[in-house]
């Protein structure tokens, strides 16, 4: 009987609430949930509506939006109408933008009209952005002011820095070379540190050998047989350029070798050095090993040194010797300073001994050594200095 009376009282309250609209008393079991939800909207209420908060059903009070007002209205019950739900999400949702409806009202009577939310800076017009960008560019594109030499850096570079860049060692090692009086600049021995030089004009020597201080490249290639001594071949044959295709700087060969002749050939971008190495005035010697068939007369070397009459004049060898003899097979060494076409083959053929195989083993002071066929190596600074001394550079 008590339960029925209580139900009647509850049902009466429900009828009274529906009729008068007074504030309902929360149940015992729902107090905790209402307190937790009073500070924030439900997940289904966290949405942003396009419509303004001043329309029908909207509220200008922040407490009413959260559902925690003291005057009346349901607290976090069923979802509200569109205007109030959007206002609650904008004003009470965590991280949501705050608008004028959430702070001071958005109706037509509110002071100052709608206000901007926190953290939203006013946007600048495009014309102002263009002017700022143009001003920044003009600031960084100003012409460089040339200061007088008395206030700027001294002319030239430090000698030890130039030597280190040329590959003579570290700066400390180059300073030791200067202290040991092994460095010359324009014929004068340098004994003090910090001397400035011009790498483009001054002649620098270490131990009497000229140092290539500019961006010159020097390579030695062991040319295989069948490779044409040109940098490009229009017929598509294998040439010297195929071995230096990955070089940005244009290189050219020093002299030539026959297609079937093997041995050392130099590649560089130093035009003056290449010209002097091939000029007959400087007489740079080349040494060849030739495989021929015997027997050989004892005076063959004398004949070659005295000169062999060829179609384009006499050709003389500077040195001749027999390196190896196996039966009728002879390996002879011929040294000469001339560079005419096929000169070694023509000389031996005119003497009655055609060449079966020919290899150039040295070019001036640069020996072929144990370099393998088809290998390209960079020449050392000492070798470059020896070449320059050979042609008086």
From TrEMBL:
<comment type="similarity">
    <text>Belongs to the pseudouridine synthase RsuA family.</text>
</comment>
<dbReference type="InterPro" id="IPR018496">
    <property type="entry name" value="PsdUridine_synth_RsuA/RluB_CS"/>
</dbReference>
<dbReference type="InterPro" id="IPR020103">
    <property type="entry name" value="PsdUridine_synth_cat_dom_sf"/>
</dbReference>
<feature type="compositionally biased region" description="Gly residues">
    <location>
        <begin position="106"/>
        <end position="116"/>
    </location>
</feature>
<feature type="domain" description="RNA-binding S4">
    <location>
        <begin position="157"/>
        <end position="218"/>
    </location>
</feature>
<feature type="compositionally biased region" description="Basic and acidic residues">
    <location>
        <begin position="124"/>
        <end position="136"/>
    </location>
</feature>
<dbReference type="InterPro" id="IPR002942">
    <property type="entry name" value="S4_RNA-bd"/>
</dbReference>
<dbReference type="InterPro" id="IPR000748">
    <property type="entry name" value="PsdUridine_synth_RsuA/RluB/E/F"/>
</dbReference>
<keyword id="KW-0413">Isomerase</keyword>
<feature type="compositionally biased region" description="Low complexity">
    <location>
        <begin position="76"/>
        <end position="91"/>
    </location>
</feature>
<dbReference type="InterPro" id="IPR006145">
    <property type="entry name" value="PsdUridine_synth_RsuA/RluA"/>
</dbReference>
<feature type="compositionally biased region" description="Basic and acidic residues">
    <location>
        <begin position="7"/>
        <end position="18"/>
    </location>
</feature>
<feature type="region of interest" description="Disordered">
    <location>
        <begin position="1"/>
        <end position="154"/>
    </location>
</feature>
<dbReference type="InterPro" id="IPR036986">
    <property type="entry name" value="S4_RNA-bd_sf"/>
</dbReference>
<dbReference type="Pfam" id="PF01479">
    <property type="entry name" value="S4"/>
</dbReference>
<feature type="compositionally biased region" description="Basic and acidic residues">
    <location>
        <begin position="30"/>
        <end position="49"/>
    </location>
</feature>
<dbReference type="Pfam" id="PF00849">
    <property type="entry name" value="PseudoU_synth_2"/>
</dbReference>
<protein>
    <recommendedName>
        <fullName>Pseudouridine synthase</fullName>
        <ecNumber>5.4.99.-</ecNumber>
    </recommendedName>
</protein>
<dbReference type="InterPro" id="IPR050343">
    <property type="entry name" value="RsuA_PseudoU_synthase"/>
</dbReference>
<keyword id="KW-0694">RNA-binding</keyword>
